Structure formats: C-alpha cells, structure tokens
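Hi, here's the filled form for the chain we discussed.

Project: internal
Contact: R.S.
Residues: 332
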Amino acid sequence: MKKKFAAGLVTLAVSAGMLACGATVFAEEGNPTIAFVPKVMGQAWWDHVEENVKEWSEENGIDVIYKGPTDTDAAAQVQIMTDLVNQGVDILCFSPNDPDACEAICKEAMDKGIIVIATEASGMENVNYDIEAFDETGLGGFLMDQLAEQMGGEGQYITMVGSMTMESQNNWADAAVARAEEAYPDMELVPDKRVADDSDAEKAYELTKELITKYPDLKGILGTGSFDAPGAARAIQELGLTGKVFAISVAMPLEVADYLEDGTLGSVALWDAGITAKAMLNCAVKLYNGEEITDGADLGEEGYDAVAVQDKVIVGEGQIAITKENCYDFGF
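And the returned structure, exactly as it came back:
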C-alpha cells in the first residue's frame, strides 16, 4: 500500500507548467524543497518519470523541481545540479549521465546537509542512498522464469547479449543460467551457450536464424540487451515458428508491441522508472523526517515494500513483465 507523507504539510503554490520547466521553488515552512534531475528532458523514458514525479507531488502536497539537460551531457547535468545546490534545496534526487562527474557536487550538497538520493549509480560514494529496481541475480532469474513458463519448463535454449564485454548484461545472463540449473532441470543450454548481437536488432535477427538452423530443437532465446528480443522475434515470425520458439529480453514496450500482440513474444522484461522515482522521493522524505532506512523497509511503492539495504545501495524487486496487456501503458 502506498504511504502518504504530506500529513500536516502546506502545499506549495506552483503551476504544473512551472514544475515542468524546473522553475525555482522555495518551500513554505514545514515542507522540504525537492529537486529531481533526470538524465535528459524530452525523452520518452524520462517524460514518463516526470509524469510520475508530478503525480507524487500532487498526492503528497509537496512540490518538486524537475529539471535536466536537453541531451545526455554530463557537464550540463552537473551545472544544473550545482545551481540547485546553490539555491539551497533540501533534497536532491537524480540519475547521473556520468556518476564520477557528479561526485564533487554531491559531496558539496551533503556537506551542506542536503539529502542526496540517486538511481542507476550504485558505485557512487557521495550519496545518502542509491536506489535500484533490482539486483543482477533478481533480473536474470526473472528473465529465466518468464522464458521457462513460455517453454513449458523444458527444451534447449541459448543466451544472447549485446556484447561479451557488457558486464551487467553478461551477469544477468549468468544469473539466468544459474536459475535454470536450480529450477528447470529439463531445460538444456546448447553448446554455444552465448552469442552477442553487437546491440543491433538486425544482427539479432540474423543470429536467430543461424541458431535455429544449427540447433533444430532450439526452443528458447534468453537475451539481456534491448535489441535481442526484437531481432529474435522478427526471425521467429518470418520462419513461422511462433508458439514453437520463444524469446525474451529487456526491451522497450512500444518497440515490441506488435510482436506481443500477435503472440510472437509472450513477454519482455523492464522496470518502471516512474515507480523508482516515487520510491526515491519517499525515501528522501523519510530521511528528511528523521527516519532510518533499514533492511526490509517499506518505501511505499510496489516492488519497494521490503527493500534490501546494502550499505548505500537500496535494492527493490521492481522488475516487471511487459505483455500485450500493459505494453501501451508507458508511452515508450
């Protein structure tokens, strides 16, 4: 159940337009001044985050300055964060384009007593907490569970990544294989074990056709990059193997909506960055109110109601299955 933090607080008078453009807002007595700095403005993923931040603001009666760079420029983002720190915000939430570049301004913020909450920055030192939707084991296992359900828990499969040097994607794939070994004894990893598509849907398409020729009994392709499932689905569809060969990966919902609707893909995986943003804000207000965040804490959002706290990293279970029922809910 979502928690409300606004009891007894006075709502700031600021229009939605001011919020969207990041106008300077100063809190009335009792309210924290909160800023949220995305990686970039005007991109669908971060537009979705902005909508959720506005929703949180309205629900809790606390305004949020939402302002970021117009492209993924690390220096421009740091300058925005610097301006906000100099304005004297109480809470700074952000997702860095370059975590290392943000360390100095975050240290300055914390030295001034500003609460600093990040996401997608698990290695940062100068934050109160970094909040992650999942850990590598959790996402890899989730991908395998989804694929295994579609495969009926049996048959040959292979893993696909963007490249053999992408650490997170390979760790997710390793975790998926470990999950299969633990829970699905009738699933068999083929001898090739893993292929890389260079983060290119066209190459994923070609690789899938080659793999199906090489392994006629291949039943599953577990990808971890956002181009894996879209490319594999195109090959599966063209070869007339819908319902016989299955693929999954992390993917943008609208990019695979047609394949989800016609059944070529059963699901893909993602996390809702808007929900993560709400959890970040809830966490920050808890800290502002003097609460401690301990293992098992409830940050008031689905997937973050019993978080794991590992030093400065808070890990939820925010991974979700994107299906034909919800693929149009995100706007990207």
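Let me know if anything looks off before we file it.
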